[in-house]
């Protein structure tokens, strides 16, 4: 009788253990199924990429080209991605707020497309280590923050060749945004191109201290035209300087986009950006988990900068010269700032045969001989 009682107790204990085990297994199984469902739902959701713009896509310049790059990424990657942009974001505290809000809204990669967004981007990147950040035209990076730009100075140089051949007064006007290395480097490269076809020409610079202000840009261009310029170039985000030149029946050089499409044949050629490939490949890398921080600076050979088609007003021999110079740059045989290069005082700042480093170019804060204007306002 005692043996039977012990056996019964053991059977009951075994049943309790089995029930407990079965219960745990079902509970664990439910958790696994729930986790799989969440992961499956997340996998089905599009990857979210955001862009922060200094201007509006309708500026027909800088922001227009960035947004063309965004749209190209959408076309290439289809419904696998979802993109958004915030336009007209001032550099400074407002940029920090906007970038942070985008990270909070679940965007997995955020592109900030203006030099003054650099520190705000870095600040927010530290707060969101699982989000990828890409800053255009700066120099700071972090584990989850890259920077990118293009060697637009190469296209600037080529467009300068065209400008130098076109001017009859020997005065070319240049509407500059801010006296920072990016803009200074472009003015210098353009001037070296001008000197290739017209060694005695001068490039007059007027600063606006704006990136996007159509009224101010037009006024600066008019002032340069009044000072004798018969070709207008610019580092601004609208077509207003080109329109002002066209109204005076003189020539201009476009920037950012092919401005002849919006102004006409008086725009002899444009130095252009092409962000399509970069945006597509970097979003894809973030999706794949292969994204790595970098400092990227692509040039003519990479397809990140280019020239537009020439106006029919550009002579064939000048087109041929530009193409020959472009081939030299693309081959790596030569680049725009290979020495000797002289500053405004006539001193050789880059010695004969010397090749400046990217760091030297990125910190350029002096004007070449032939520029009329000052880096120090």
Automatic annotation (TrEMBL):
Keywords: Signal
Name the record gives this protein: BMP family ABC transporter substrate-binding protein
Cellular component aspect of the GO annotation: plasma membrane
Upper lineage: Bacteria, Pseudomonadati, Spirochaetota, Spirochaetia, Spirochaetales
Pfam families: Bmp
PANTHER family, per the entry: ABC TRANSPORTER SUBSTRATE-BINDING PROTEIN
Location of the ABC transporter substrate-binding protein PnrA-like domain: 48-330
């Amino acid at each position: 009788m005692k043996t039977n009682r012990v056996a019964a107790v053991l059977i009951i204990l075994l049943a309790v253990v089995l029930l407990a085990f079965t219960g745990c297994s079902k509970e664990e199984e439910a958790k696994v199924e729930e986790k799989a469902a969440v992961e499956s739902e997340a996998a089905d959701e599009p990857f979210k990429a955001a862009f922060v713009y200094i201007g509006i896509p309708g500026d027909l310049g800088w922001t227009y080209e960035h947004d063309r790059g965004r749209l190209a990424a959408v076309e290439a990657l289809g419904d696998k991605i979802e993109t958004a942009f915030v336009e007209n974001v001032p550099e400074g505290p407002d940029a920090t707020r906007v970038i942070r809000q985008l990270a909070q809204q679940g965007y997995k990669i955020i592109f900030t497309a203006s030099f003054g967004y650099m520190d705000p981007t870095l600040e927010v990147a530290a707060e969101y280590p699982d989000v990828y950040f890409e800053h255009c035209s700066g120099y700071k990076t972090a584990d989850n923050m890259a920077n990118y730009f293009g060697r637009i100075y190469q296209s600037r140089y080529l467009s300068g060749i065209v400008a130098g051949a076109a001017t009859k007064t020997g005065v070319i006007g240049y509407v500059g945004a801010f006296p920072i290395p990016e803009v200074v480097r472009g003015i210098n490269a353009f001037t070296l191109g001008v000197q290739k076809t017209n060694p005695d020409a001068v490039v007059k610079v007027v600063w606006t201290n704006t990136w996007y202000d159509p009224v101010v840009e037009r006024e600066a261009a008019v002032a340069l035209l009044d000072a004798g310029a018969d070709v207008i170039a610019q580092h601004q985000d609208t077509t207003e300087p080109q329109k002002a030149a066209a109204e005076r029946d003189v020539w201009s050089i476009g920037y950012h986009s092919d401005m002849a499409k919006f102004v006409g044949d008086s725009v002899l050629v444009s130095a252009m950006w092409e962000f399509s490939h970069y945006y597509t490949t970097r979003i894809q890398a973030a999706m794949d988990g292969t994204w790595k921080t970098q400092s990227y600076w692509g040039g003519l050979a990479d397809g990140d900068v280019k020239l537009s088609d020439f106006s029919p007003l550009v002579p064939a021999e000048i087109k041929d010269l530009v193409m020959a110079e472009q081939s030299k740059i693309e081959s790596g045989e030569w680049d725009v700032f290979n020495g000797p290069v002289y500053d405004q005082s006539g001193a050789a700042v880059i010695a004969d045969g010397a090749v400046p480093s990217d760091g030297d170019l990125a910190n350029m804060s002096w004007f070449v001989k032939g520029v009329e204007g000052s880096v120090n306002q």
